[in-house]
Write a structure and sequence with these properties.
about 500 residues, 18 strands, alpha+beta
């Protein structure tokens, strides 16, 4: 019979095997390609969180082909086959464990020669279990390293294709009309001495900026305006960590193994697994990770103002200005809801969209609402609505917010549960949406409210918070550059 100590050693050896396997699972038929590592998988294998409950069979190959991501239809077939094999191996392990118990009980009751036969069978079971446990560990790694890269399923009404196929659902307001050539926000901001983005390479690098004076007041006013609006609707205010573990990022559907990475990571020599969040969505999801909420408390609506850090790498587009920057302030909405009827998260998405429209309309923006196509959804979104505001200085619409229904995609990875009417735990649905991304809101507000002399009107809704109705031109710049990077080499 297999000794408990020997079986425990076999399980530990099998568990160690996935660590050194790199990107391959190595089930029957050879290694399966995948990411170099998955922090969520490591998190689970170390016992820090519950195992993700993935429903790979709910996703079709056709859906996968229409989405952007690292996997295609054939990968889904292989993942399902790996899961089937893993399930068979686990069933075989369960049968052997049951037989091991029967043998143990038989050994206690019998005398020779039956005793010797049972001891021999026990030794055989131990060897078979060692082999099956090694297969289980290999198949488990192969399955999860690839299955965690799969996207959510897709709402049947989502347009198919790239961003050019986005469906315009609604256009709100009128484009501002000028009897002069409108300026861009950076030219306006520099003229008013409220935005500085030049001569910062030696201070904070590319895509950084300073807001001062009225621009800083506008930032705080936008945050206060959005927060007050959402608090009046019953949202729970929250402050979240900026630094989070990779497991939470991956549980939200973000792929940290991409090169270049979309997130900023802290020096791994000092902090092995911490990255800066690009949205408060990650921190809020981490708050609910491995927790269950009561059905009667749902939906829970959370609002958070945070600094967002983005490793923007597309330096060929928007090289100047506030449209693509490494750091900005954002007010984020996040919702956790039940899945009793299946329609709850869709209703909450519509509610978030209505809140966005209310905020942007009260600020006097001209914008359009888009139903985003399959290739623009990202991994976690079942459906996503973007709002683009008119930006006269750019001469086109620019995205200022998005709202996504992630159904149970994030909750299955992060173990976010709720107690249903019968007291049973079920996976919740999650919804997220941007209430106010300050940097892009400043673009739209400055460019749409500019005056011929370079001054800018403050929207009436923000005037009490800013203390101004018009941002005036300063009599002279606050600072005079005296550094070496100027004609003549400086003083």
């Amino acid at each position: 019979m297999a000794a408990p100590r020997a079986l425990a050693a076999a399980r530990r050896a099998a568990a160690r095997g996935w660590r050194g396997a790199g990107g391959g699972g190595g089930g029957p038929g050879g290694a399966v390609p995948g990411p170099v590592r998955s922090r969520l998988y490591e998190h689970v294998r170390e016992g820090r969180s519950a195992r993700p409950q993935l429903e790979v069979s709910a996703l079709s190959e056709r859906e996968l082909e229409r989405r952007q991501g690292p996997l295609r239809g054939r990968d889904l077939r292989e993942i399902v086959q790996t899961w089937t094999r893993l399930r068979d191996v686990r069933a075989a392990i369960a049968r052997l464990e049951d037989e091991k118990g029967q043998v143990a009980r038989g050994v206690q009751a019998l005398m020779l020669p039956a005793y010797g036969a049972l001891r021999a069978r026990g030794r055989q079971i131990r060897l078979e279990l060692q082999e099956l446990l090694a297969q289980e560990a290999s198949l488990d790694e192969s399955f999860y390293l690839r299955a965690l890269q799969l996207p959510n399923s897709t709402h049947p009404e989502v347009p198919i294709g790239d961003e050019s196929q986005a469906r315009v659902l609604e256009v709100v307001g009128e484009k501002p009309v000028f009897d002069f050539k409108p300026k861009g926000h950076l030219e306006l901001g520099e003229g008013l001495d409220i935005i500085r983005q030049r001569r910062l390479s030696h201070v904070s690098g590319h895509r950084s900026y300073y807001l001062c004076g009225a621009a800083a007041l506008l930032e705080h006013a936008l945050v206060r305006f959005a927060m007050a609006k959402l608090l009046s609707k019953g949202f729970l205010p929250m402050t979240v960590p900026d630094l989070l573990r990779g497991a939470v990022f991956e549980g939200c559907g973000m792929q940290l193994h991409l090169s270049p990475s979309p997130v900023y990571s802290i020096d791994p020599a000092r902090f092995e697994d911490l990255s800066l969040a690009g949205t408060a969505e990650v921190g809020i999801a981490g708050y609910f990770m491995d927790h269950a909420v009561r059905l009667q408390d749902l939906p829970i609506r959370v609002v958070c103002s945070s600094t967002c850090y983005r490793a923007e790498t597309d330096t060929g587009r928007e090289p100047w200005g506030l449209y693509r920057v490494h750091q900005f302030t954002k007010v984020e909405m996040f919702g956790v809801t039940a899945a009793e009827s299946g329609a709850e998260s869709g209703a909450l998405l519509a509610e978030f969209l209505a809140m966005q429209k209310e905020i942007f309309s009260e600020l006097g923006l001209h914008y359009r609402v888009l139903d985003m196509p399959t290739e623009e959804l990202g991994l976690p979104a079942y459906r996503k609505f973007d709002i683009e505001a008119w930006m006269p200085g750019r001469g086109k619409y620019g995205e200022i917010s998005s709202a996504s229904n992630c159904t149970d995609y994030q909750s299955r990875r992060l173990n976010i549960m709720y107690s249903d009417g019968a007291g049973q735990l079920r996976h919740a649905h999650t919804v997220n949406g941007t209430a106010c991304a300050v940097s892009r809101m400043l673009i739209a507000l400055l460019e749409c409210n500019q005056l011929p002399d370079g001054r800018v009107r403050v929207p009436p809704a923000l005037q009490p918070l800013v203390g101004l109705d018009v941002i005036p031109r300063p009599p002279a710049p606050r600072l005079r550059y005296i550094g070496p990077n100027q004609p003549g080499g400086g003083p």
